[in-house]
Amino acid sequence: MSINEIPLSRPDITKREIDLVTRTMMTGRLSIGPMQERFEQQIAEQSGRNFGVAVSSGTAGLHLVLRALEIGPGDEVVTTPFSFVASSNAILYVGATPVFVDVEPNSLNMDPEKVEAAITPRTRAILAVETFGNAAHMDKYAAIAARHEIPLIEDCCEALGSSCRGRPAGSFGRAGVFAFYPNKQITTGEGGVIVTDDERLAEVCRSMRSHGRPCEFDSAHAPTPERSVRDPVSSGPSPSTGSWLTHVRLGFNYRMSEIQAAIGVGQMERFQEILQKRESVAGMYMSRLMGVPELTLPDVMPGTEVSWFVFVVRLQTEYSCDDRDRIITELREHDVGAAPYFPCIHLLPFYREMFGFEPGMFPIAESVSQRTIALPFHSQLTERDVDIVCQTLELMISRQRLARS
Ligand SMILES: *Cc1c(COP(=O)(O)O)cnc(C)c1O
């Protein structure tokens, strides 16, 4: 691609974020500090939860939540095959078995009836994903989980700012996980935050993100939550060793640095502005593409508000996967970023090998995933950019139609 490229995504970084990063670097405190705490509070507040635990990525957050819920080998977790691969990989990390259920074709989230039908005595959790930021059915999954007395885990990595029936994404599950890779609504470069109202779960996740250091609930090991533990690297030798080198459970290093958190704090200060800009770009696409008969546009269902993560259109059913792939290739050749979001997880070669999945098992997810095209989507796209993208898309679709006839 060239400098004329309209990229698929692009973070929205201003002087504010840069100033916060610079100031943080000057303090000399680069990990475990006030920026992380501030960012955790901002994300918890946005999602209507009491606790936030910052981690190194959304994937790390999902891993910790599954471990904190003690889900492991022999356990089943009901989840969607139409997602970014990380939502299912986290289930594999703990040795549990993902049980996929097909999606509902409008929201592209799991079909609630199929979720209910997939629950067995071995089901230990429902891991629901807000696909492309759409929070539809989250209330229904929460009700199903409550009825079966199992936790709902919300992979809300694509949904910061979305809501369903007035409740924000992240507020439906026992825990929710947000992600801040540069293509998400807001970014920290890399990062994630676990949100929950369950204080014990939050503290266990805090412990596990930092090598298994004791938390408030590990009473035998002195009441030393990570925030009050003196880190010998960033704050000088700790007075009486404290619990810095006490490890009470298998932990990881899944911490978010102060520099990353500083970016996030600046992004959250500007969150409404960023959301509004994204909303306005989505509106431009909607009105520009509404009349294109070959395309199905994103469906915002009544009762839900979408915080736009990506703008994904899909070709009508007469188009094949090859047609779609050719259109994507040609868009890219014409400097328009495009991507096939997402290939079905159960059809990825290593999932097929591990579990014997075959095409045809989740027909709606498969059919949709063969025809989707993610278009360039970020806060800085202009009306002119959107126009170029749409014109190019329409041209490539009609070329494809001619090539086939
Ligand atoms: C982005 C994303 C993740 C993981 O995020 P990382 O921070 O890249 O690890 C997990 N699940 C979904 C659905 C995502 O879109």
Question: Describe it for me?
Answer:
This protein is α/β, with parallel strands linked by helices and 405 residues long. The chain is 38% helix and 13% strand. The protein contains 13 helices and 13 strands. Strands 1-9-8-5-4-2-3 form a seven-stranded mixed sheet, with helices on both faces. α3 crosses α7 and α10 packs across α13. The longest helix has 22 residues. It is globular. The two termini are 30 Å apart. The relative contact order is 0.17. About 1% of the residues have low confidence. It binds pyridoxal-5'-phosphate. The site of pyridoxal-5'-phosphate has 14 residues, from α3 and α4.
How is this fold's topology laid out?
Elements: H1 15-27, H2 34-46, E1 51-55, H3 58-68, E2 76-79, H4 86-93, E3 97-100, H5 112-118, E4 123-129, H6 138-147, E5 152-155, E6 163-164, E7 167-168, E8 175-179, E9 192-196, H7 199-209, H8 258-269, H9 271-289, E10 295-296, E11 304-305, E12 311-315, H10 321-333, H11 349-355, H12 363-369, E13 372-375, H13 383-404
Parallel strand pairs: 2-3, 2-4, 4-5, 5-8
Antiparallel strand pairs: 1-9, 6-7, 6-11, 8-9, 10-12, 12-13
Tag the structure with descriptive keywords.
405 residues, alpha/beta, seven-stranded mixed beta sheet, three-stranded antiparallel beta sheet, 13 helices, 38% helix, binds pyridoxal-5'-phosphate
**pLDDT averaged over residues:** 94
| Structural class computed from helices and strand pairing | alpha/beta
Question: Residue share in helices?
Answer: 25-40%
Distance between the termini: 30 Å
**H/E element sequence:** HHEHEHEHEHEEEEEHHHEEEHHHEH
Radius of gyration, in Å, reads 22 Å
> Within the largest sheet, what's the order of strands?
1-9-8-5-4-2-3
Major sheet = 7 strands, mixed
Instruction: Write out the distinct hetero groups bound to the structure.
Output: pyridoxal-5'-phosphate
How much strand content do the residues show?
A: 5-15%
From the spread of the alpha carbons, the general shape counts as: globular
- DSSP summary: helix tally: 13
Q: Which ranges are low-confidence, i.e. pLDDT below 50, for 5 or more consecutive residues?
A: 236-240
| Number of beta-strand segments | 13
